[in-house]
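Hey,
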Amino acid sequence: MTRFSLITLVLGGFLGYAAMANCNQSATRTSAPATIAQVTSGPHGQTAAQPRDAAKALQRGEAAYNRKDYGTALRELQPLAQHGNAVAQNWLGRMYQQGLGVLKNENEAVRLYRQAAAQGLAMGQTNLGFMYAEGRGVARDESEAVRLFQQAAAQGYALGQYGMGLMYEQGWGVARDLVEAQRRFTQAAETASVTSDRTKAMQARERVARQLAPPQPSASPPTSVTPPTPLSFAPSSLPMGDASPPETLHRRALIIGNAAYPHAPLRNPINDATDMADIVRRFGFEVTLLRDADKSTMERAVEDFTTRVQRRSVGLFFFSGHGAQIDGQNYLIPIGAALGEPSDVKYRAVAADWILARMDDIGMEVKLLILDACRNNPFGRSWTRALNRGLVTIDAPKGSLIAYSTSPGKTAEDGTGRNSPYTTHLLRESPQPRRPIELMFKAVRVGVQEETKGQQTPWEASSLTGEFVFAH
């Protein structure tokens, strides 16, 4: 969207640096941001007699925030925010977004970010842009996110450029354009005034460069930038009998969440997919994220996912949504599929076996297929006899692990919280450092069984021969 949102995990240190903001409405916009002492209020802020006091209060609030004294930060920043101080509004929005010193309230965070953005605060525009991009505290609107990022970027704000880079990389609100994404990340790296920000922009630029590069005969990916906490095999075991260092494995993921089924909508798949995308980015994956995808979109994404792939690579496919088992085969249901009869599923849904076969054919060294797709029959009573409950196990080719949210022939819960029970525990357990993936899924299984009081038991089929970990 713990949540592991795009805002907190992809950008990391990018957000919350009020000292980098430039919201002085009377000044000409430049690429050099004002300091926190210079930024005192927007057009509806304090009077001319008050800016020095406001600047001191902002400094005290920032200092308290940085030392994690959120009670003091709240006391200093809240009065300024109420009087229209854009920087204080942005700080306070961050506190409400993360639940720091206040009850977590994304709606209130959006309200405060919106106030700051309306005064031209580039940082507020950027933060609000990510709330719209992820549907946090507001209905998801990728076009509005693009508009806000563009406003921030036009002020020379590095994080606005970075946000636009992400939108172009993922094809959110704009046509997917990796060349433009690379250009935006380059601009962010060149204008960022904080080292950690510059590093993240450079890593993003390198990530896109690898996607643009033609296939290499060598298995080793570019090593000029090493992503943080990369996904790899544990050093005690080499992958699948090859003697190459495990950290050279290239990593990519395709993550899909389908929820807007006309006759059987689901509550959580969009959140499940979004949060999974966030966390696997943290582990060094290049991620393609699809939300509410139709059949042609899913098929094109699978083809792209399994094209121009280095043979020494890790592939992760995650799907959250409706799935069906017909005649011993598993199918993932796209949005908008016209499924009048059970036989339509074979031709108008996407076969899970096909996805795994594509991953194997292209030579992915490690193939991870995670299916949170065993919801109840979405097709009505007339299908009950033809449609088997749950999914069936798939034979795992060498070097693969297939994980199901529940045991064969059973159905899984969608959940009443932000995520399904399965994805909730997957998000909770995967960041544990140096834990072999089999033990991680065992912990997920225990957690789901406890949460569902034994009604749901996750299942895996594995043919991995090396020890594989998500996080170091």
